[in-house]
């Protein structure tokens, strides 16, 4: 029988102290993990024609580790070229104090930049021309609290004109409908006019407010023996790509066997022949790293604007229906050929 | 001044000390063996990390090189087709368009003749914004291509998109291998970004590509590329910019990485183009495996240490527990458990120690028991001494005191016999004054005495003043030959010391052999000293009583003489009071008064007018009588007689006081007169005047009939009969 217990107590005390330290270490390691932040992103999808940009953005964010419902929440507000709706949606985002506004196209982006002045809510735009609209200071230093994905700009209108000219080299009168006073139209027309002039082609510019106005104009032309149009070219603007407007234009084009190109559209059985644009999914993805960088603490205005690549689509079927021959060189450049 | 007591330092337990020592030695040995191994381990680990990083960097470099090679390969394949040279412009355009469609990185393609003139150009952009492709190619490219070599131009930035671009060129040959033209391509390097960004460098590492100037041309964070960031501030990039290693070789080092963290970085120079691929791995991740290994080995060491600690504790307990148990036993014995025995267990040395400890404890127990007994005995002795002192304090008669003392001592100490001897007046014998029992009474009856300085213990004791002890009858049979005390086996003779004097001795005897010890001698001597003090006090008291009696008698005789003288001189002193008047009369002496005067007793009178005569006494001398007669002729009651006696007593005191006062007054008058005469005599310094004044003043003061003062020595002639002498004076 052991009678002496003093050293036993001391040694047991040491073991207890060690065990306490281990438990404390585990507890502290658990306590040091902060609660993950859930980001709230307001998405203003302002043009149905490229609504897939939102999907591309979400896909890109998912690839960067932002899982919807877990650490990011999207408030997607969709409208189709409605300036008043743009403003009310943006006001809602500001009232909700979202962490970031993702917005497209150009007009909505400009509105977003304006309404977020004086707030600390960053804006990431997409599908927006930046040339001549004051959206950013420069590509490298956008300034303010905004950055985004640049639409290729006026050059894309020229590219559309070049492809149209290659497909229908005999077309000398090209009708160009567009939204009246839309801010990015002028820069496109300015780029386009000298090229058309050099090719001895007449550009028939027709600003309008609605599909009805377009229809009235086209019906008026249809009544004439010579409508005065050899081909129809769309600029990068919202009016022509609305389904109503395109249906009016497509109906007129089919009736008169005219090529419609610039933006790849289809409505009520009418189709355009080609489109030069950006891929909505891809351009949406390009915005994701920008948002990620903002969430990591970089001011939006210091993040350079990235540029989307041209995306050429040829509707070979529509061309054949019109009896047109698409040159091999054009087909070879196409990113997508629809047969 | 206060003194601080330093608290003794508490030592650790033996078990803890032994365990600590074992553990410490083991840990030291482990550390000595582990540290060189750790050093070697770290060095090897660092080398492994560097080697691994270089492999990753070379892999990344291969990816970038493959991207460039792929573009060259496409161009060279197209250029080798003789068809491209000889076909129509339209076909050439279709070929270039096909290339453009299949290679997104190509932004423009152009086919030039051998002189460098553009034959066909196709662009992903509009022709108006595509820019001057040949102008962007730089200089000397045509000569280089003409020599059959590849050409890759410097990087430039597109103004609209801020994206890095470059021009590549390959020669076009005919079927004979002759140089016939140039296939030129503008390559957008943004398509390399995804490749570089996707390069896997560990878990959290990264890779990027810089040109010869240190400009960032490919990186996962495209924003920094679009900003045309120059990263030559980074140590490793600076080395590349300053002095690149040959193509394919790698350099590794630690530095502050592109994101500001400390990293292990490696760059690989590509050669052509003159870029470098840089990989970075955070130090934390790069050294994680090494640290894990170190921690694992440390863990093993800790486990070994823990095992050693357990073993050390076990061994320490085995060694220390018997000692600790012995310590516990000692503590309990110190706490009063004197009957405990230490367990005889453990190593032999500890068993020996326990055995010795038990022996020591037994001795201690016996010693303590003896001490307690002796303390009890001593206490009893001291109590008896105190009792003797208390009992004798109130008794001053030696005849009563001494027997009490001997009985008390015998009873308290359970002795056989106690006797007290006092020295006689001549100092020759010690005479027995008290003794216990029959033996004592018998010896007192025959006035037992022992010669001081004789052979007896009492005789020697009184002579030397030292206690004498005899413990065994066999050794001193002669001293125990008293037939009155046949059972005595031990005897102790103690001197009775009164100051410096030995006034006697006390003998205490027991029927047990060796009954008395030295401690008993001390106790008994204390008792003897108390007895001596009591005897001395009794004697002093008797002497004091005798002195007082003598003084009282002497004073009474003086007072009697004084009253006799007074009454002789004033025989008429007496007063009679009848209620009408009080008159002095000396002729009233009735027979009862004379009787009371001579008998000093109260004498009641007889007859028709009963009287009572009460003597007036001063210092037991009757100096007069008070005689009272009641007016109504009734008998004197005893109460009345007692009252008159009491009043007479007061008269006695008053008379004595008055006599003393008168005596004092007379003495004072005499002293004053002497002073006055002396003063007059001293008023002059002339001898004759002094003598004359003296003879006059003294005679007058004493109212003498005559006074003679004569100086000098009388001659025979001048000596005359006294009578004649006075006559001459009168005649003078």
Please, how many domains of chain A? 2
First-to-last CA distance of chain A: 99 Å
Strand order, sheet with most strands of chain A? 7-6-8-9-12-14-15
What top-tier CATH class of the largest domain in chain A fits best? Alpha Beta
Principal-axes shape call of chain B: elongated
What's the main sheet of chain A like? 7 strands, mixed
Termini of chain B, distance in Å?
Answer: 96 Å
Instruction: Return the CATH architecture of the largest domain in chain A.
Output: 3-Layer(aba) Sandwich
Task: State the CATH superfamily name of the largest domain in chain A.
Answer: Response regulator
Mean pLDDT of chain A: 89
| Rg of chain A, Å, rounded | 28 Å
Oligomer type = heterodimer
Radius of gyration of chain B: 75 Å
Tally of helical segments of chain B: 20
Helix/strand/pairing category of chain B: alpha+beta
Give an account of the 3D structure:
Helix content of chain A is 42%, strand content 20%. Chain A is built from 11 helices and 15 strands. In chain A, α2 (52-63) packs across α9, α3 (83-95) packs across α4 and α7 runs parallel beside α8. Chain A is elongated and about 100 Å long. Residues 1-7 of chain A have low confidence and may be disordered. With 732 residues, chain B is an alpha+beta fold. In chain B, α1 (14-80) packs antiparallel against α11 (288-334), α12 runs antiparallel to α13 and α18 packs antiparallel against α19 (687-702). Chain B is elongated and about 210 Å long. The A-B interface holds A 2-4, 6-7, 10-11, 139-141, 150, 152-153, 155-156, 158-159, 161-162, 191, 194-195, 289-290, 293, 298, 303-307, 309-310, 327-335 and B 13-16, 19, 90, 93-94, 96-98, 100-101, 104, 122, 124-129, 160-163, 221-223, 226-228, 313, 316-317, 320-321, 324-325, 327-328.
Briefly summarize what is shown:
The complex is a heterodimer of chains A (339) and B (732). Chain A is 42% helix and 20% strand.
